[in-house]
Specification:
Length: 164
């Protein structure tokens, strides 16, 4: 028994595309559509179970460490960056950024890091592990290197504010 729209596949042979293939495949078996009966008593139980699982799920997600991978590059035509944010339950967000201003590779990495950190904050991440192949940027963010360039210092300051 199901409340899914499989009834159309089983009862109407004039459907198109993939539905025809499913109708043919299912016709080999003795499958019949039966609508789900009344579930009045089950509704409240399902609601309580759903609410309690949401609380447990939120606690699990709060302890989850999100992973942010960033990379930036520049050439004569312009600069850009890539951001990959991995969250709980296999959530994967990928972004490609193209900048309309001149930036060197490390500035592009900083812009990607800032964009990724803002995205992670927006997604509700509480713990974030950021990865980059830029030794200079990672060294400056961790405090191993000093930012001497005014632009890099400004980027680093903003990253430190976002780290909060």
């Amino acid at each position: 028994m199901t409340d899914l729209p499989i009834r159309k596949v089983l009862q109407k042979p004039d459907v198109a595309g993939r539905m025809v293939r499913w109708a043919v495949e299912l016709s080999e078996f003795d499958v019949q559509y039966e609508p789900r009966g009344p579930i009045k008593g089950q509704v409240f139980t399902d609601f309580v179970v759903e609410l309690s699982s949401v609380d447990a799920q939120q606690k699990e997600e709060a302890n989850f460490r999100w992973v942010l991978s960033v990379d930036g590059s520049s050439n004569q035509q312009g600069s850009g960056a890539g951001v990959i944010l991995e969250g709980p339950k296999g959530l994967l967000i990928e972004q490609a950024l193209r900048f309309t201003f001149k930036a060197n590779n490390n500035q592009a990495v900083y812009k990607a890091l800032i964009a990724g950190m803002l995205l992670a904050t927006e997604m509700g991440a509480r713990s974030l592990l950021a990865k980059s192949d830029s030794l200079l940027v990672t060294g400056q963010v961790t405090g191993e290197y000093q930012a001497k360039d005014p632009q890099m210092t400004a980027y680093l300051g903003y990253v430190q504010i976002l780290k909060g």
